[in-house]
Structures are given as C-alpha cells and as structure tokens.
Amino acid sequence: xxxxxxxxxxxxxxxxxxxxxxxxxxxxxxxxxxxxxxxxxxxxxxxxxxxxxxxxxxxxxxxxxxxxxxxxxxxxxxxxxxxxxxxxxxxxxxxxxxxxxxxxxxxxxxxxxxxxxxxxxxxxxxxxxxxxxxxxxxxxxxxxxxxxxxxxxxxxxxxxxxxxxxxxxxxxxxxxxxxxxxxxxxxxxxxxxxxxxxxxxxxxxxxxxxxxxxxxxxxxxxx
Length: 223
Fold this sequence. Notes:
transmembrane helix; mainly alpha; 8 helices; MetI-like_sf; cell membrane; MetI-like fold
C-alpha cells in the first residue's frame, strides 16, 4: 500500500499529459481531416495527387515511425544545418503532437471523403433547384448527413487515438505509459501497469459514452 501512494501521483501526472495529447490531436485533426477531404474530392489533378501521396504515406507507415522521424529527424536536420541547440530544437511533446495530427488527419480525411461520396447526387441537384449555394448546401444538407454516416468510423479512430498516445513513451515523454513502466521497474510490481490499464479503460469508457450520446443526438438526420 505504501508503494501505491508513491507511484499513484506520478501516474496521475502522466494521465494529464496523455489526455492533453489526446484532446489536442482530436481538436485539430477532425477539422483538418474534413478540409483535406475536399482536396481528395477536388477536380484539380495536382491537388488530388498531393492528397493521395499524403494519405498513402501517413496510412502506409507506422505512427511510431512518424513520431520518431519528426522528433529525431527534424532535430538532426537542424543540427546538420548548423542551427545551435540553444537557438531552436523541436520539443518532444510538440514533435509527437505534430506527428499525431498529421497521422489522424489522414485517417479522418478518408473517412469524411467516403461519407461525402455516399450522399446521393440528387440532393445536390435538388438544393441547386431551390437556389441554395454550394456552401449552404454543404453546411445545411450534406455535412449533417455525413457526420451521421461516419460517426461509427470516427468513434473507432478516437478510441484508437487513446491507446496510440502510449507510443510517445518511445521518445521519453513522461506520459501515463512511460511513468507506469518506470514505476513497475522501480517497485518490482505490476500494480502500476494495472492502474494504468484502469486509467486507459476509464478514458475509453467515457469516450464511448460521449460518442453514443452524439450518435443519439444526430439520429434526427436519417437517410
């Protein structure tokens, strides 16, 4: 019990960092994913080509590799260019955050692209006949239906994001996973890992509940 009170405050601090990365990634990647999906639907070949290359790289390589590449790769490049370490170096958390946003933006953009393409073209034509602009059609007619369609897929990615945050321990960020593993080695006990598991399960339980509430609220938009 004494060891529990030693490592528990550490895990709570790590939980705060894990939640920060989770929330910031989610807040940035969902809107960016929707915007990027427009490039995938664009008639511009260059735009579609850039989008396809970006999505292929982000979805075709492991997230853990992207985290390492962004943090170590950018800092190594700065060193090679002769930029002094006291002038600028990419922070560990910032590097992980950028990697997570780029990765999840790619996944969300493909989800949104599929959702938009599933909308019957007749609805666009009907909106045009009624005199609605393209932006108004997208905002009032298409987007509500798209979010209803893609919510289960988005929910799966959000749950994956909670678990993927543990990858940042590889670059020595003191998140929940890293502190739990450190406490396990120090205390020679699996209890810190069990507590970390409970924390992850609790986060995902709350996320699942929120997602179900959102889906229920959006059940008005039936197609």
